[in-house]
Amino acid sequence: MIADNEFIISNYKGILWYVKADGTKPLLLDTRANGKMANDISYNSKTKTLYVPSFRTNQIIAYQVK
Known about the structure:
The protein is mainly beta. It has one domain. The radius of gyration is 12 Å and the shape is globular. The chain has a three-stranded antiparallel β-sheet, with no helix packed on it. The chain has a three-stranded antiparallel β-sheet with strand order 4-5-6, with no helix packed on it. The protein has strands spanning 7-11, 15-19, 27-30, 42-44, 49-54, 59-64. It has no helices and six strands. 0% of the residues lie in helices and 44% in strands.
C-alpha cells in the first residue's frame, strides 16, 4: 500500500503496476527482457523505497517512489 486505496502490485515474471484509487493501473516496470523476475516486493513508507527481490539474479533492487 502506497497511499489510501493505492498500491503497487507485482507479477513474478518482472512486471510492476501502480494501482490507483480510480482502478487504473499504469505499468511501472517490466524487466522480463533482462530476466529480472520480481519476487515478493516490500515498501518502506518512511523512506518511500520499494524493494524488489529478483529470482534469477540474487539481487534486491531498490526504487525511490515519488
